[in-house]
């Protein structure tokens, strides 16, 4: 069977481009697991693939990196939703729907599966398992509730607020009785944040001359919680606006991923961590997947009761996957960016 | 009575120089509080003045600074030990020995005293109340025990390890069953750390080509706790050497104080906060002075039993105070730098 793949051409230096990835239309795969292979292998048909900023960090060979670099010449990997076609793994059987880490290709042999969950609730859009019901949902839940421990009335700022995680932070903040403001890169997204996602305020950071002043406008009394998805210059602008004893949840730093090897721009006012008694806590969502069942118990009723919604941005077909991934870094996506490989 | 003062000439830009401070030998003072003045005023004779890195940040006019800037033309202020000559304050009476914030001059009217403690234990060297029994002692205690919550066997790194705070971190770490390494700027200090203060290891960071490599040498399995007194390039070198879930106590960032207004050099790899799930907690010791009595109960027996020692570096006379303060920023001091104004 033919098995179209998205392959990493070479390690990437600087800004990610579509041409750093190649569509390989000549690969093939046997749709049955080979005899005598691994006892834990699962063969899946990929349905939805998730475009996540952290994937850029796997395209550069870094010393001491948490993430293993992708291998040039091989398909890249990421979170996705898939259907099991064949399995030697005791937890998965043919016909199961699953979400977790898979390949950017039509079919993948996952052997052994490291992060793979059986989808229990098939009454939800399957694509949600790349977003609100998958890794970004868990990141929002953990990063906001576990890391920030928000209290009613607190002032919350979230960057990349219309993204996969940010849109949930705003909604969680409102459910927790907080005042929440989000930043995004277009007027369309700002309107979404205010009119559909329930943010108290939102602004287009591309249109602000002075980010520090913009934050002062929306937070005259300062920020209690900053949910940081971007790092860099935005973090630098946030620090002077933090209140004493404020908390920063360091979820991601998308502004840095295209130049992790370089002397990246960064908060040059980190001394404010001291004088404002700030706490910054980084976290990796993989360390919290044991909480996934608890998360599902909380999030499912919220979705069903219409108390939380989720915006997705679909790219159709593997051939459009590289552009979708690259688009994350210029904010082209509105909501969770994903790729439809097949609908069933 | 004449009252020699050290006066700030002008707001300071860039590197602090002795000439930024002026010795004013023509000021006078009446050694009796004026009738009808503040009901809370205390008139003191200054004995020992503390040279602390944070004082540099009060010499530049910064927006949103935690510390109020000194007034050009007026004596600078800082922690010190003094004797009460006259008092309208109910908590202090003539003859009391006190420590807290006072002026860089022979005599000061403190009105009202904001941070001023009556010295209960006069059987200790009075100079200790600028160091181990004063603000730096509290900073070490709070920053290590309250912020880092060290566990037996953990690996601790402290920068500026032979300074007022650093020398205590090493000794606290050993008392807590930790492995501790310190960095300092001369061979003499490194020897002190290893031979007198009980650090497991110490190194001269001025002699290291590659700080990252130096840290790898001393921490092959990584750092659990970094007690940061310097910030900047050292923090940048530490981040890749932190273990997952490591903690950073942000006590001070002396490397940054001479250029807080500039685009200071900083950790350009802050993304490691995310991938290593690190926690960085800044703190201001003033927020913890309610714990001073508890601290004294703990530290006094340790000193008396010889389980903890303290190295001081004395400058004699107010006329030598500017050089002593400036010397902090090139690491001239060995141990706690203080100025002797008068011995009683």
From TrEMBL, chains A, B:
Domain Alcohol dehydrogenase-like C-terminal: 164-298
Keywords: Oxidoreductase
Protein name: Enoyl reductase (ER) domain-containing protein
Domain Oxidoreductase N-terminal: 5-113
PANTHER family, per database record: PROSTAGLANDIN REDUCTASE, PROSTAGLANDIN REDUCTASE 1
GO molecular-function terms, A-Z: 2-alkenal reductase [NAD(P)H] activity
Stored InterPro entries: ADH-like_C, ADH_N_2, GroES-like_sf, MDR_fam, NAD(P)-bd_dom_sf
């Amino acid at each position: 069977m033919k098995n179209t793949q998205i392959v990493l051409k070479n390690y990437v230096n600087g800004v990610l481009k579509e041409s750093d990835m190649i569509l390989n239309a000549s690969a093939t795969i046997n749709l049955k697991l080979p005899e005598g292979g691994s006892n834990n292998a699962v063969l899946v048909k990929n349905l939805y693939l998730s475009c996540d900023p952290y994937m850029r960090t796997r395209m550069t060979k870094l010393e001491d990196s948490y993430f293993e670099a992708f291998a040039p010449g091989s398909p890249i990997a990421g979170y996705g939703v898939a259907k099991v076609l064949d399995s030697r793994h005791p937890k998965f059987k043919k016909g199961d729907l699953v979400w977790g880490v898979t390949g950017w290709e039509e079919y993948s042999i996952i052997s052994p599966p490291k992060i793979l969950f059986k989808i229990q609730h098939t009454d939800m859009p399957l694509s949600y398992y790349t977003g609100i019901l998958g890794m970004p949902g868990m990141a929002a839940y953990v990063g906001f509730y576990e890391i920030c421990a928000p209290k009613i009335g607190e002032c919350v700022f979230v960057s990349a607020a219309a993204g996969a995680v940010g849109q949930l932070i705003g909604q969680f903040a409102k459910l927790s009785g907080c005042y929440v403001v989000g930043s995004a890169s277009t007027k369309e997204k700002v309107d979404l944040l205010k009119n559909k996602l329930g943010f108290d305020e939102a602004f287009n950071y591309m249109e602000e001359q002075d980010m520090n002043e913009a934050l002062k406008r929306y937070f005259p009394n300062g920020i209690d919680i900053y949910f940081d998805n971007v790092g860099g210059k935005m973090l630098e602008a946030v620090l002077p606006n933090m209140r004493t004893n404020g908390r920063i949840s360091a979820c991601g730093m998308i502004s840095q991923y295209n130049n992790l090897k370089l002397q990246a721009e960064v908060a040059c006012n980190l001394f404010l961590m001291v004088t404002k008694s700030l706490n910054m806590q980084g976290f990796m969502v993989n360390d919290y997947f044991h909480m996934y069942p608890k998360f599902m118990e909380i999030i499912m009723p919220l979705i069903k009761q219409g108390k939380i919604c989720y915006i997705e941005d679909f790219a159709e077909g593997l051939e459009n996957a590289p552009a979708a991934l690259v688009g994350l870094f210029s904010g082209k996506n509105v909501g969770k960016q994903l790729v439809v490989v097949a609908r069933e």
